[in-house]
Amino acid sequence: MPPQQPVGHSGLYPDADTAWSVSNGQVMVAQVASGVAGTPQPFVFKGVRYQPTPLDINGGAAGSPMGDFYYIGMQNPGTDATTMIMYQPIWDRDVGPNGLIRKLGANNIGVYGSFNMPPFTLSAPGNALPVVPSAGNATIDWTALGPIRYVPANGQEYPTYMPAGASDKQAPPYWYHYCHDVFLDMCWNGGVDPIYVFLSVGVSTAAFYSTNPAPASGSQYTQVQQYYLDTATWLGQSYGHHPALAGFYVTNETNQPTASGTYEYREYWDFLNAVGAALKQGAPNKLTLAAMQDDTATLTTQLVQYVSPPVPGGSAPATEPLYVDSKGNITTTATGNNPAYATDVYGLDLWGWNLYAAPTTLTPIIAYLSGRKAAGLPMAPVVLSEIGIPQAMRFTQVANTGFGTLGGNDPYVANPNGELATWDSTTGAAVLSPYISGTVLGQESLAVVTTTSTARTSTTFFTENPTYNAGGLVAYDSDTGNYWLFQGVPQNPASPGLPPPSWMQLDATIYGALLEALRTPKHPPAAAGPAVALYAYLQAAAGFQVGNDSVAPANQLLQGVQVFEFSDEWYKWMDPTVTDPTTIQTAAGVHDFRDAPIAPWGPANAQFYTCWEEEWFGLCSVLPVGRNSTDPAIASDGWLTGGVADKLTPRASYMVVQQFFAQ
Q1: Cβ burial 93-109 (10 Å sphere, 16+ → b, else e)
Q2: How far apart are alpha carbons 193 and 203 in whole angstroms?
Q3: Domain of life here (predicted)?
Q4: In this predicted model, what pLDDT tens digit does every residue of 190-205 receive, in sequence order?
Q5: Do the domain assignments include residue 481?
Q6: Which residue ranges in the chain fall short of pLDDT 50?
Q7: Residue 489 is part of which domain span?
Q8: What domain count does the chain have?
């Protein structure tokens, strides 16, 4: 048996590491060999958010949010257990030597699911035991979960669970998801074109009194905080020296407004900083950041603090406003001091900002950053941690499905068209068919279609071409050689209150080469309209890139992008407002049902109207392989059913991102 590896080192790369830092407002990375760091080099974020949740995954099958699909585990309990690769087919497909993320040209990924699951979100196998919080639970010894030891299996060495001081393999507790080194090793790829990884602690709003004042038993905000601190300590110690690791997301979009929200309270920012400090204990040379939803009030609201520690279930204590003095100290004294804002107390290395728009000088976050830079005020570097556009859209409601608190419900099956995928073993492909007759659930934007000037401008265009009934339709006019983008709602262009249907000619100097590439292949990729808008988003973001000599120094505000997201990945659980038996029975992989009104997407020179669908932002669409879309993707023991990953098909937006990353 190989010698036991120290905590935080990969079994394959025990002498390699990377050191991350910020210098003069630029993210830097240095290669480390045998403890010696090389010269730091500027790092530009060319990444994607990555949560490869298979079709029809139960929301709690691998923990929440959306599961941990990055580990290997034991096939049998006890000391005779053998190592089993569970999710490697997914990694091979995505980050392997010929993976789609590598072909995309991405240099980093950001995951959502934590590398070890919150005990209070999991049940024991068979739901035999209640969920248990980590705080105060003497049976959970977080310090005993590492280091990882490599053991032989099938002629190879695989890491497995080995508590400190143990001489034999042991079956881990049901909530411990074994080891993730194999996934990280694959991302590192021996240091050749590595895909750097940002892990997630996943702090939720339940960790704050302002949003969790009267918790259920065992879920007090203080207990939840202790769990996240435990998780951060464990993550940092276990993976803090892996060369593929770039850093950690502490939280994602938990900056909530109003008095029952988070961002105006110092407790929110102090705890994010505390989690960052816990991570740094084991990972001192990795980055920490929090991803914020696009709300600049987060940065411009004066902070308050509770005058006394809040008691779960008790009355909320009074609050008092905070100020900052000339030395940067936070105080409650107003005289001679300025109001204190989030930027005065934020202690993480980077800000993540989730912006679903083309950034311009008038975009609130860009204007805010420009103002701070011009005034010489400090600000941690900012990366656009989510930027993207929906690849599917919907114009009708679903029969026999009610309206939830978030608006019209929209259950789906295998793909945006609301079709059931039935596996045909003879052809080796999934056969698609509508699962509710006569109901149009959604329509993935089409590839570029070819038409004539007369046909395109006809009032019966969509009646005569029902398959074109999609938002973001791009048409090539064979009479003139021009490209046109349809604006409005093709299915019901006369709806009151909606923009009148019209065609907008796309600027050939901006989009010409892209559109030709989308039209000419033998099998053009789908979703041309969203690709056009995403192209504009990314090009606009490049106009604010830090370290780019072609960008004016005053405009160098962003570290780069992480595109949301790699694939259609957000398969969740059934909405409780859906009661129709047919819908419940057939809607495999049903989503969270939220929708938004018909609204414009994209910049002014490439804009279309649609209801956006949260889960179909993927650069790649997904279909099951070797099973029906109603069959479970994950076995009851948490393994990938059949050992086969779902099939991904790149959309037009994939090509756009690929071209952008190659610049």
Answers
A1: bbbbeebbbbebebbbb
A2: 31
A3: Bacteria
A4: 999 999 999 999 899 9
A5: yes
A6: 1-9, 59-60, 63-65, 118-133, 135-136, 142-149, 174-175, 395-414, 436-441, 572-576, 583-596
A7: 446-525
A8: 1
